[in-house]
Specification:
Helix content: 25-40%
Largest sheet: 7 strands, mixed
Strand order of the largest sheet: 11-10-12-13-15-14-22
Number of helices: 22
Radius of gyration: 27 Å
Distance between the termini: 65 Å
Length: about 625
């Protein structure tokens, strides 16, 4: 297209303002969709929009190319309004091959746009995707109701790089940069962040910097000059609370929260883990913070990881380990030992679909009852759940604070959705974080028969925590272990009455955590027809659903539980102000069982175990149906 024609095309293009949009990049697991989505997210953060993301990738390291179970996707919802979910429906799908179209077509809203890599729709790929001999691009009925843009992404990428002296495989992998450039133009995103990232990513390979930046610009300019796209969209900046922001993934937020707790408490952070999806990224992130004195240890198995963490806590460190569902099972005995020894430590569980290996790259909330009861004997401990990527920071910090304050292991629950997702995060000031005092024992605490003696199980009256004495402190020699201990002295005891007393005392110590919990925040109406109770990553979908229900005339509110054991002391008062109770969970109804046991109220469960987070519309539909059936 000549320069005169290009100018003519630019002149006829219009700019349409939107409040929000949802984009989904999808392709083969080798097409770089996660990278493409993350760079679009970075550009969106630079554009000052609110955002929420959903990375969605296959479990196989390299699934067979072109198959539906090898499709990798990255969904991003962004806007000038408050954005809490990755979006119920997609406005733009970028499909790099037939399998990506087949898997994700149902997500696209009626009238939505689909950008298709036309070059990938060849007979072999069509058969792998399950289309047989029918090309969906020729099937008007299949794509009726959508705006379909056939773009020769592969061919134009090859044409753009024909003089760059790169092999065919490298050139083919660069087509995601063309798609990214086109999407950036379509939604008026800045291209500079991606250019800068490429320069940093390939700093040791100048030829790759030049090639990828060139293709990225080609995609952007294609949007400007082609006659196919006559509308460009603009989304104004969101009105966010004043402060310094960054786009953050949940796993990065977890790491920073642990580092903040270590710095604030002046306790050296020791982190031990065995690699397991999706918790492994936490090890990768914490290993980058050695400048804060963080020590990371990759253990040979889950049992070794929990054992090393117990040893670190015994030695006076802030001991932390992380795992995903099956790994928590293997750690159960070690966690029980830490409960008996009453040592402060944090066990992070980034939940995934189960049981067993299950759906290792998909999200689920199915480990709540395991966290609550999955140990032999009576071994209660505090349970905290993070609700958003940014909230992971505060949940991690609070888990460390509770562990040290009450001398107990704490389980921190996240899941694949909240850990891998991103959102704008307002960076907190250190002075705004809660105080974190660590009272190490430094002298004997009781006179026994006129002699100064250290009693390792003498209790703090406010917290019921026992003293924390570092090994080697003169005069504070004591014994810890898995056998039941005598009250105060810590001597091994088989006395029945003592065991009853110590079991009750450990349970009461966990209950004491409720005394420091803030009042519950009720979103929406504080009394009325329906309250929706959730925990963890369901918060965004629940609050969006509450907004829609209230717009429809229903008096609805929502409570998101960060603390599940113990439950907040004012939860019963909040529940008493509503007529109906709905509990959405990414499991078969685990919080429902805990709430029914505690309050004996008719809680209604809404279960989803599809490896995907809730859509707000699913919660709205369930809420309306329940209220109608109960009226």
């Amino acid at each position: 297209m000549g320069s005169d024609s290009s100018n003519t095309v630019k002149e006829v293009k219009s700019v349409q303002s939107l409040r929000e949009a949802t984009v989904l990049f999808a392709g083969d697991s080798g097409d770089g969709m996660q990278l493409t989505g993350s760079q679009f997210t970075l550009a969106t953060a630079f554009a000052h929009n609110d955002l929420s993301t959903l990375p969605d990738f296959p479990a196989e390291i390299r699934a067979p190319a072109g198959t539906t179970y090898g499709v990798s996707g990255y969904q991003l919802h962004f806007g000038s309004v408050s954005v809490r979910t990755p979006g119920d429906e997609v406005d733009l799908l970028v499909a790099m091959n037939p399998a990506a179209l087949k898997v994700n077509l149902s997500r696209v809203r009626s009238g939505g746009a689909i950008v298709i890599n036309e070059n990938a729709f060849k007979p072999h790929n069509l058969k792998l995707a399950g289309y047989g001999d029918v090309n969906p691009l020729d099937n008007e009925e299949l794509l009726r109701g959508y705006q379909v843009f056939k773009v020769e992404l592969s061919r134009m990428t090859e044409e753009a790089l024909k003089d760059h002296n790169l092999d065919k495989k490298v050139i083919d992998r660069s087509k995601n940069m063309f798609a990214l450039g086109l999407a950036l133009w379509l939604y008026s995103r800045p291209i500079e962040p991606a250019l800068d990232w490429l320069a940093q990513k390939f700093s040791s390979r100048p030829e790759l910097i030049k090639a990828n930046q060139h293709v990225l610009k080609k995609g952007f300019h294609y949007g400007e000059t082609t006659e196919d796209f006559i509308v460009q969209y603009q989304i104004p900046p969101a009105e966010l609370e004043p402060g310094v922001y960054r786009a953050i993934r949940g796993v990065e937020s977890l790491a920073l929260g642990l580092v903040a707790a270590s710095t604030k408490s002046k306790l050296p952070l020791f982190y031990s883990s065995y690699p397991i999806t999706p918790a492994s990224d936490l090890l990768h992130n914490l290993s980058r913070h050695k400048n804060f004195g963080v020590k990371t240890f990759q253990a040979e198995d889950e049992i070794a990881a929990i054992g090393a963490t117990i040893g670190a806590s015994f030695g006076g460190c802030l001991g932390v380990c992380a795992t995903s569902g099956p790994g928590l099972t293997l750690k159960a005995e070690g966690i029980g030992l830490a409960v008996m020894m009453e040592l402060p430590m944090v066990i992070v569980n980034v939940q995934r679909g189960g049981p067993s290996t299950g759906l290792p790259t998909k999200t689920e909330q199915s480990d709540l009852l395991q966290a609550m009861y999955g140990r032999n004997g009576e071994a209660p401990l505090p349970i905290i759940a993070a609700s958003t990527p940014g909230d992971c920071f505060h949940a991690a910090y609070e888990a460390c604070r509770v562990a040290v304050r009450h001398m107990t292991p704490v389980i921190l629950l996240a899941d694949g959705y909240v850990a891998n997702g991103s959102e704008p995060w307002r960076i907190p000031s250190s002075k705004d974080l809660k105080d974190f005092h660590v009272p190490f024992a430094n002298k004997p605490n009781r006179k026994v028969e006129g002699k100064d003696t250290f009693l390792p199980y003498l209790r703090n009256e406010d917290t019921l925590a026992r003293p924390w004495a570092k090994p080697g402190t003169p005069g504070l020699e004591h014994r810890l272990g898995g056998l039941e201990k005598e009250h105060e002295t810590g001597s091994v005891s088989y006395d029945p009455e003592n065991h009853q007393f110590m079991t009750t005392l450990r349970a009461n110590k966990v209950k004491k955590v409720a005394q420091i919990l803030p009042p519950l925040d009720v979103y929406g109406d504080t009394e009325g027809d329906l309250v929706i109770i959730g925990w963890g990553s369901t918060q965004g979908a629940i609050r969006t659903a509450v907004d829609r229900l209230r717009d429809g005339g229903l008096k609805a509110g929502a409570v998101q539980l960060r603390n599940i054991n113990p439950l907040p002391s004012d939860l019963g008062s909040v529940l008493s102000r509503f007529d109906h109770y709905l509990v959405p969970e990414l499991n078969m109804g685990q919080l429902v069982r805990i709430l029914r046991d505690r309050f004996l109220l008719p809680f209604v469960k809404l279960s989803k175990v599809q490896g995907q987070p809730f859509k707000a519309s699913e919660i709205v539909d369930a809420a309306i149906l329940h209220c109608k059936q109960s009226s």
